[in-house]
From TrEMBL:
UniProt name for this protein: Radial spoke head 1 homolog
Keyword set, alphabetical order: Cell projection, Cilium, Cytoplasm, Cytoskeleton, Flagellum, Meiosis, Repeat
SMART domains with a match to the protein in the record: MORN
Pfam families per UniProt: MORN (PF02493)
Sections of the chain in a coiled coil: none
Gene this chain is encoded by: Rsph1
InterPro entries membership: MORN (IPR003409)
Record function comment: Functions as part of axonemal radial spoke complexes that play an important part in the motility of sperm and cilia.
Predominant location category: cytoplasm
Example GO BP: axoneme assembly
Organism annotation: Bombycilla garrulus (Bohemian waxwing)
Subcellular localization(s) per the UniProt record: Cytoplasm, Cytoskeleton, Flagellum axoneme
Ranges where the record places region Disordered: 1-27
Amino acid sequence: EYEGDRNSQGQRHGFGKARLPNGDTYEGQYEDGLRSGHGTYRFKNGALYTGDYLQNKKHGKGVFFYPDGSKYAGDWVDDQRQGFGEYLYANGDTYTGEWANNKRHGQGTYVYKETGSKYVGCWVNGIQDGPAELIHLNHRFKGRFLNGKPLGHGKFIFDVGCEQHGEYIQSVQEKEEEEEEEAPLPLEPIWKVSEITKLTPWSPHDEELLNP
């Protein structure tokens, strides 16, 4: 069913309302028979998208409300979350940052609602990967991540006024002869401390004291 403007060829063009055969509805702009411009699309399953369209695809700025209560607000390209956007997850976690092909990709900040901790750094195809900072209530970790786990050199910075330097080492599971067919379980990287130092603050006044 369609109710709205049409062009001289009889195609949907301008503003209109439509009910699709699957029970979804759309209300918004059309161009030459296709959803283009601003519109609101309601899915039969309870999801809703309101934002920009280009030739029947979500493209531009838009907000998508998912049936589980989660929500994405940001950029879309060719029906995919791409560009910059904020995602509120059903469990209350949030991600604000860059997207590509529907996945967290580039620079972004993920906040864990349950603990208040946040990851600020690089993402590759939805996974924490690259230089980052993991900020907790009274301390933070600066280092690199690989496949969602910290790996290599880094440091913990504690609010009490010290830094713990070290590295995360990928532990290897000891294999027993009979179990060789089974793939070894990936173990958590192990933190190995190298030294503990004071915080290393710097201010322009430090140089004035050294050069009277």
